[in-house]
Write a structure and sequence with these properties.
about 375 residues, 3 domains, six-stranded mixed beta sheet, flat
Length: about 375
């Protein structure tokens, strides 16, 4: 019975994964699972699969095709008599939410977009306990007490110290401190790959509303993929108009300050944060910048290009620029200048004109496996 249950469970999981894969584009565009907080489990809405069937009313209480009339007579609808604008009648579509591990969801994303596995650069060595517990100790937590060994030691000690037992006599074994041994794992150094994601967003007045929602959704899926490739992930959020500032995740998506746009201010702050907190020899660094491409005159060629080419790109695994517009697919001046003046495969650009472009843009950014 247990084997049959496990077999049915695996079959159900396979069906769920197939439904998620089939509807992945729609899930990303609607943002139906973005923003769920806490844990390693997310809830994914999937359409219920039902076998069509006829349903009959045994009480003949009426409905479409029931009542007086001749065969072939058309059904007429009178808005006045039939209550146009009143509450609807009858069932509507409902979707079942299934729980799935974020790692499984990331695997589905990677399979669907054919994303290559990332090869981390550098490793920081950290002390960690040996889970195999190959040694023993005279002290330790009760959870690691070797109970059988303590019982045998106590029994042997009492048999050696007590006179021979008479027939039918029992002995009560009470281990003492000297009988007790505890499992012990010797701490050892193990390599751990660290990752920092630096999200930058243009916060001028033209970047609010739908543009911000597109950025929020794309960043969630980017973060999901990188989390599955690294054991330790940190995030930095930079908001900029003419000046740049480091903010919380909540402020990053909710604030819109207006004013002019000077993109180099964000790149300068990003470079300072890397120099102060994230040594490129120990950290895998991913920078993502989103803007509508409208920058202060001369800032791109005079400040952004030198900053990227000479300071940022040598330190990062990847620098991704997403031009977020609504309906317009032509490249902005900032994107044009970057592509003209920088030849480096660590710089990746993408145009995101609406939600339908999110999936393609994610592949543009992560498809190189850097």
């Amino acid at each position: 019975m247990a084997k049959r249950i496990l077999k049915d469970l695996e079959r159900f999981k396979k069906i769920v994964r197939g439904e998620i894969r089939k509807n992945l584009k729609e899930l990303i565009e609607t943002g139906s699972i973005v923003g769920q907080k806490g844990g390693d489990i997310v809830k994914v809405p999937i359409k219920a699969i039902r076998i069509p069937q006829f349903r009959y009313d045994p009480h003949e209480q009426g409905g479409i095709g029931v009542g007086e009339g001749e065969i072939g007579e058309p059904i007429r609808f009178d808005p006045q008599q039939d209550g146009l604008g009143q509450a609807g009648y009858g069932p509507g579509p409902h979707f079942r939410e299934v729980e799935i591990e974020v790692r499984e969801l990331a695997e589905i994303l990677g399979e669907e977009l054919e994303l290559p596995r990332i090869q981390p650069k550098g490793h920081r060595h950290v002390l960690s306990g040996d889970e195999e517990y190959e040694d023993v100790s005279t002290v330790g937590p009760q959870a690691l007490l070797m109970k059988r060994r303590a019982f045998r030691k106590g029994l042997l000690r009492q048999l050696l110290m007590s006179p021979p037992l008479a027939q039918g006599e029992t002995i009560i074994v009470t281990p003492i401190k000297e009988d007790m041994r505890y499992l012990y794992g010797q701490p050892s150094e193990k390599p751990e790959a660290n990752c920092v994601i630096i999200f930058m967003r243009d916060a001028s007045g033209s970047m609010s509303g739908e543009k911000t929602e597109i950025i929020r959704q794309e960043n969630w899926w980017i973060d999901l993929w990188l989390r599955t490739n690294y054991s330790n992930v940190e995030r930095v959020y930079i908001l900029h108009d003419y000046e740049a500032q480091e903010v919380s995740e909540e402020d990053f998506y909710s604030l819109s300050t207006g004013g002019g746009t000077r993109i180099s201010s964000a790149y300068e702050l990003c470079n300072r944060i890397i120099d102060r907190r994230y040594n490129p020899d120990q950290w895998n660094i991913y920078a993502f910048h989103f803007s509508d491409g409208e920058n202060w005159i001369g800032d791109t060629e005079n400040a952004c290009v030198p900053l990227l080419r000479d300071a940022l790109l040598p330190k990062v695994n990847l620098f991704c620029y997403g031009q977020v517009t609504l309906g317009r697919r032509s490249p902005g001046l900032h994107l044009i200048k970057l592509k003209e003046r920088i030849e480096d495969d660590r710089l990746v650009t993408s145009i995101i004109s609406d939600r339908e472009d999110i999936l393609r843009s994610i592949k543009d950014f992560l498809g190189k496996g850097r």
